[in-house]
Specification:
Strand order of the largest sheet: 13-12-11-14-15-17-16
Distance between the termini: 38 Å
Number of domains: 2
Largest sheet: 7 strands, mixed
Strand content: 25-35%
Order of helices and strands: EHEEEHHEEHEEEEHEHEHEHEHEHEE
Shape: globular
Radius of gyration: 21 Å
Helix content: 25-40%
Bound molecules: S-adenosylmethionine
Structural class: alpha/beta
CATH superfamily of the largest domain: Vaccinia Virus protein VP39
CATH architecture of the largest domain: 3-Layer(aba) Sandwich
Length: 334
């Protein structure tokens, strides 16, 4: 089984770099290291892997002479690239130069067909954000990640390429013949990666956004996992009851108010117990206390004992705010 990791090279402890190089294929570029590893060959717990935005090399150089140097200092060279669509942030200081920047980006990254600009934060139940198209026409694309393909429309569904490492981390933990529930499944990346990389008995994937659900069905088909993944359209609060007592593992990738769904997650687990992956937002001063408190409270109500197996800082979300994950082992229901 082979997984790909994108990590910041500087984040690897010096001693560990040598170890990795002897065990795995490692390629470096100027800002990050990519490694493909036979996972059984190294201990994942030894270092922390944090995904980051893609860095576009040569953009500043391309803009020299087109934008005054004083303004170039405001340019952000880190973007999300999803398939052939780039999503960029334009600071106020560069508002009048947004088209020049977008065109320069498409020039230095010729595979990019559409350049969009973020117009705000993600909002609403579907976790969508408004985008302004600066170059190209189409926000529909196909993104490839670790042997899986995801078709999606960035204007209509949630998708983040920065969560690739987290998806792999979760998929890695799934044992053969497990029944897995992915709540808040989006276009299907967690469910599809689990089904493709492991041998679960079944993966149920619940999503409320009809557009995301439509793409999830298509992605299940193109990734050839229709025999494993069952897409479910609906609100977790309404449809989870069909899966009560059936699951060995529940993934809850909704950090914003996902705690409200913890009672449903506990009920979906088999009587003998199982694992929950719970996501939450937290300030870096205290990353896990609130999440742990919420889980303990829900577990008590559900009549389950719990043990926290892992605490993980997943991604930066805002200034000093992170998306975090708790891997929780829930015991037998009383
Ligand atoms: C943060 S996104 C994660 C999507 C996907 N898991 C991924 O990693 O790309 C959360 C998703 O949950 C969906 N969602 C929000 N509330 C929901 C609910 N009550 N029931 C089912 N899906 C919900 C949203 O439409 C959105 O697609």
């Amino acid at each position: 089984m082979e997984f790909c990791y994108k990590i910041s090279y500087s984040k690897l402890a010096k001693g560990f770099r040598g170890k990795l190089q002897s065990n795995v294929a490692l390629q470096r570029d100027r800002c990050s290291a990519y490694l493909a590893a036979k996972l059984q060959d190294f201990n994942r717990q030894s270092f922390s892997v944090i995904d980051s935005e893609a860095k576009v090399m040569g953009l500043k150089e391309e803009l020299e002479g087109k934008i005054p140097e004083s303004k170039l200092a405001f340019l952000r060279t880190g973007f999300d690239i999803i398939g052939d669509v780039a999503v960029i942030e334009i600071p106020e200081e560069l508002e009048s130069k947004k088209l020049i920047i977008a065109k320069a980006l498409a020039k230095v990254q010729p595979h990019i067909k559409t350049v969009c600009r973020k117009l705000g934060e993600r909002e609403g139940t579907f976790r969508l954000r408004e985008l302004e198209i600066l170059v190209g026409k189409d926000t529909r694309t196909e993104h490839r990640e670790c042997g899986c393909a995801y078709r999606l429309d960035l204007a209509r569904v949630y998708f983040s390429p920065r969560e690739a490492t987290e998806r792999q981390r979760i998929a890695l933990q799934v044992r053969p013949k497990e029944t897995v529930m992915v709540m808040f499944a989006g276009v299907g990346p967690y469910a599809i990666m689990i089904a493709k990389k492991q041998k679960p008995a079944r993966v149920y994937a619940i999503e409320i956004n009809p557009d995301a659900f439509k793409y999830m069905k298509e992605n299940i088909r193109i990734n050839k996992v229709s025999d494993k993944v069952e897409p479910v359209l609906g609100d977790v609060k309404k449809v989870a009851r069909n899966f009560y007592g059936k699951c060995d593992r529940v993934v809850m990738p909704l950090p914003k108010e996902g705690y409200k769904f913890l009672p449903y997650a506990f009920r979906c687990l088999k009587t003998k117990g199982g694992i929950i992956h719970f996501y939450h937002y937290a300030h870096e001063d205290d990353l896990y206390s609130e999440a742990e408190g919420l889980v303990k409270k829900a577990a008590k109500k559900a009549g389950r004992s719990i043990k926290i197996l892992a605490r993980r800082k997943v991604l930066p979300y805002g200034p000093r705010v992170f998306k975090v994950c708790l891997d929780i082992k829930a015991g037998k229901s009383k």
